[in-house]
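This week, study the protein below.
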Amino acid sequence: MSPKHPSISKDKALTLLGVSPAAGLVEIHRAYRRLAFELHPDRHSGQLEMETQFKEIVEAYKILVDSVSGGEEFEFSEIPERGRDIQHDIQVDFLDAAAGGERSVEISRPFPCQGCEEMDESENKPICASCGGTGEVFEKMNVQFLLPSGIESGERVQVLGEGAPGRAGGRAGDLLLNVFPARHPALERRGLNVHSEVRVPAFRLINGGTVRVFTVQGAAHVEIPPKTNPGRTFRLKGWGIRRNQGGRSVTGDHIVRILKMPDSLPPQPKRR
């Protein structure tokens, strides 16, 4: 089986990495790490041009290391390594948690520190000013994700490939979002059911009629009978939280408690 010929020449490889023909392994490696950091697909999601450039510099690196090492087992010994997962807590609106859908979140994503790579590799090297010696720098970025409908407080959403970038072409880690829905001033969730209160005037309790109710699925209406006592509850079937459980869609109910509206507003203090 004949050896595979490189798709780019040595001259082009030198140009791609920006090094001279006299460059040694250390200089070639540093140039490659700098460009790999700038062009890595994890930093340019969906940009095919950047992905192509990244693949070219990987091949250029292999060609130049192979050339410097004389064709023997060259020192391209970096094994692709998967990036680590990132955990992030996020608070979402009560109604957004009930409805679900596409959302975005700003996170700080770690990348390998290029300042560390460019420092002189001596035993007495100073601490890197860019990262303080941690070996990582952080960049803020927005990540799109799908929020499942009916998610509960503390549940986790896994966003594939949005964690820390891998090394040497390895796959990126995942982003793990711990979701915490905010409280609502008028609605209270209990499992899949939602509870609320509606105040109506005295004549509605006496005569009965239609009462408008605000739910997580929008406006609904309940018919109350004549002579309804304050504090009575009514169940609106299927107007609660919707979510997927065990591979099937389930929906809770909305329970509304009817209360009597005050007869009159409290007297306002007189202005002097």
Observations:
- The chain is about 20% helix and 30% strand.
- Residues 86-181 form a domain with the HSP40/DNAj peptide-binding domain fold (CATH 2.60.260.20).
